[in-house]
Amino acid sequence: MEPLKSSIHDLVMGLPSLDVTASLSTCFNQLKAVMPLDGIYINYFDKQQRCIWPIAQVNALGTESQSGKISLNTFMCQRLTSSHRPRMMVLADVQDDPVTRWVLSNYLPQARSVILVRLLIDGVHCGIIGFYSNLANQYNDTQAKLLQQLHRHFALIAALEIQQRRQAGSNMSFQRRGVDQVMDTVPETVIGEHNGLAEVMLKVRSVAPTRCTVLIQGESGVGKEVIANAIHQHSNSGANFVRVNCGAIPEHLIDSILFGHEKGAFTGADRQHKGYFEQACGGTLFLDEIGELPLTAQVKLLRVLQTRRTTRVGGTGEISVDFRLITATHRNLPQMIATGEFRQDLWYRINLFPLDVPPLRERKEDIPLLAEYFLESAIRRLTDDDHSGVTEYDTEQLMEYSWPGNVRELQNVIDRAVISSRNGKLEFDLRGEVASVSAITSSAPVDDIEIIPLDTMLSQYLHRVLLLCHGKIHGPGGAAERLDVNPNTLRSKLKKFEII
Ligand SMILES: Nc1ncnc2c1ncn2[C@@H]1O[C@H](COP(=O)(O)OP(=O)(O)OP(=O)(O)O)[C@@H](O)[C@H]1O
Predict the structure, then answer these.
(1) For 198-356, CATH number?
(2) SMART domains under this entry (predicted)?
């Protein structure tokens, strides 16, 4: 331990610079010779905005000043500001502390064991400096106590750095707020990108800059749209991302919506409308639920992909359209080709780079991070109350469930838990599916049950639900909302059972 002690003594006496990257670099070079160390990072805790601002980090490749922010939920903020949180912590594994696990999963997923030294100014927590190794179980309390001597220097640096950033970009936080609003619909970061979605994201990064056509496949609610968005973001094109839900366009409007129309092309066309192909020019066109596109529209889409030209309804001239195409479906397209519901030639055109997004039950390691992310978003959107956060017991429960509705179902379960929480304590109801089935059968005496095929049962049940909802599928009070399923999923089931 002596070498570490004397190195830290030298550092405390001799860190002359108030420049953050220079200070981190000096520390890293001296300390890595006397303790296990793969990197050091420093970040700032912003209580008002309930987030962490990464400031800088150093590793064997050099130093890096950082930007961006990591949102925290109420539970995480409470943990950080709690007077019980020790001034330094030794984590044998980052998994041992939910806040550190969340923060590092965003930008240092390789870190395993960490010494955290809190940076306090006038006793107020303003951030941390973290010393990490990529291996678990590398540190002890003696090392942590020695490293704690560096906290004053880095607390000062963190405070100065944040002050400078605030002055330099008083409109930066405004811009970030804009991004946050977008995050509530399509998240900027893909949760699980370093865990259960690591392989998918590897493909995303390699295909993104190529403008190659991508077909994203996966069950309903797995995050296909999130992946499509990530491809667009990693392509750095900066141009439009136009999403079209093919299942949501009424069949008689498909032409005018995809291709656009000229003024007067039909009754009610009181002005010219640019179609989605035109709107996506120079950027990305994302055709979601492509399996729902009727055959007539499939033929027209194929023609656009072959010629890269479209004609507006009621128009005469052809318009060149240049866009990157991403499609997605939860349907089995080869099976649809076999039954004549999907054109094989179109499938060849769109299936250039297939990307499969695995269901949540096959990547359960993502559940804790997703739960924390959704909880934070639900609290922000739905309540002003404080919440206890996701306890270890809750996480176990969430991990045991099979999530037939995938990530979307997890998000709904968390929203419901926040809405129905009492005294800030969350209660997860994972019996949604079971409850509705028992509601149908409970009216019949047990020994009187006629066993019928599941599909017949489902078809009859959906038929009754639709009658109850006066035929309304989409929107408030509609069958999809009452059944808590995606309207497109419901629509395809209703079509399958020939109810609509
Ligand atoms: N990896 C992820 N990180 C953060 N949020 C996610 C992730 N995956 C899914 N979500 C969220 O879950 C919900 C469902 O995701 P999304 O709409 O992308 O699924 P989908 O596969 O396109 O569903 P569908 O087939 O029904 O269209 C969305 O609110 C999305 O923001």
Answers:
(1) 3.40.50.300
(2) AAA (SM00382), GAF (SM00065)
